[in-house]
Amino acid sequence: MISVSFLKSKYNRQETIALIDESQASLIHVDLMDGIYVPQKNFEIDEIMKLLNNTKKPLDIHLMVNNPLIYIKELVKLKPYIITIHLDGTLNIEETIAYLKNFNIKVGVAINPNESEHIIDSYIDKIDYVLIMSVYPGEGGQKFIPSVLEKINYFKGKLLIGIDGGINEDSIKYLKGYPIDIIVSGSYICQSDNFNERINNLLNIK
Length: 206
Prior knowledge:
8 strands, 23% helix
């Protein structure tokens, strides 16, 4: 599946979301940053709720925030497919996981490039998805870090596996043969004139 992030685009936010919604993408990837967990802040929660209230495609929400439960309590109203958190930004992991499970939302945990795959060992039986970060969180348009791929096979058969960061028609070649379920791509797709052409490029090379 291709999940398209609208963090960096040649179009305004509403136009970009509409184009993703009409494209061949499987998911709309929503990056939410609070300016604390990462230096940048990109959206207020009410902006996200307004922008994504009427989308047709399922939402894949990535929270780069401290204390994500505050945001989650609003975001569940959008009925997202997945919400992904970072362990080092989450005050009460067990409570956050349980809250999402109550709403039948898949629970994801992101692993940053400098973190071991083993950081989520205690939660593998409680979550649904692992998001391998192939850039450092907080800024769109970064260059893909190939060394993170070493973590992927550890999760084969245990969780849904995603990869996020720097994915384009060059870096996608590194993913060949890896058991990846969700590929997140942003600027490569959204800074183009033809979203479907770019999505198909990724699917065909993969």
